[in-house]
């Protein structure tokens, strides 16, 4: 049950809703739960939460196109993210900045497999660092 709670805490924390999952992760670790399962539960939840943001970005992009709200500024921002921004997804774990990055990735239509790879690496590495630092 603790792993499921951690999963949902991490999932919600990765969406645009303000929440954190690190305190619960470290609390569960201090109670002697299996580090591998903690890492798996937190990472999977957080990655799936980022996928929700990505999907919202895809929807938002469709809305923008449908409403003809395109502008030169949007095209410039999209071109910048296409050129440099996808690597920034390695930092999708950062507070405040990370969640909007995953939304922008969807709006910019970054290839999903690339999005998933970069986000997975960054988020799993962050949780692993936390777990092994405090073990």
Provide structural commentary.
By secondary structure, this protein is mainly α. It has one domain (2-133). 73% of the residues lie in helices and 0% in strands. It is built from six helices and no strands. The chain has helices spanning 2-14, 22-30, 35-66, 72-83, 98-107, 112-133. Helix 1 (2-14) packs antiparallel against helix 2 (22-30) and helix 3 (35-66) packs across helix 5. The radius of gyration is 16 Å and the shape is elongated. The model has no long low-confidence stretch (mean pLDDT 88).
Supply the number of structural domains. 1
Tell how many strands the DSSP assignment holds: 0
Measured on Cα atoms, how large is the radius of gyration?
16 Å
Q: Distance N terminus to C terminus? A: 21 Å
Structural class: mainly alpha
The low-confidence runs, each spanning 5 or more residues with pLDDT under 50, are none
Percent of residues in helices: over 70%
Largest beta-sheet characterization: none
General shape: elongated
Strand content: under 5%
Mean pLDDT level: 88
How are helices and strands ordered from N to C? HHHHHH
How many H/I helical runs? 6
């Amino acid at each position: 049950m603790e792993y499921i709670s951690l999963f949902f805490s991490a999932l919600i924390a990765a969406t645009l809703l303000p929440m954190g999952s690190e305190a619960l992760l470290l609390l569960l670790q201090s109670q002697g739960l299996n580090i591998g399962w903690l890492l798996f539960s937190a990472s999977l939840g957080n990655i799936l939460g980022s996928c929700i943001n990505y999907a919202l970005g895809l929807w938002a992009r469709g809305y923008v196109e449908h409403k003809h709200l395109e502008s030169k500024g949007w095209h410039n921002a999209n071109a910048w993210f296409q050129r440099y921004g996808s690597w920034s997804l390695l930092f999708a774990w950062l507070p405040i900045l990370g969640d909007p990055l995953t939304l922008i990735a969807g709006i910019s239509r970054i290839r999903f497999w690339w999005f998933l790879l970069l986000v997975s690496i960054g988020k799993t590495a962050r949780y692993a660092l936390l777990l092994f630092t405090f073990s």
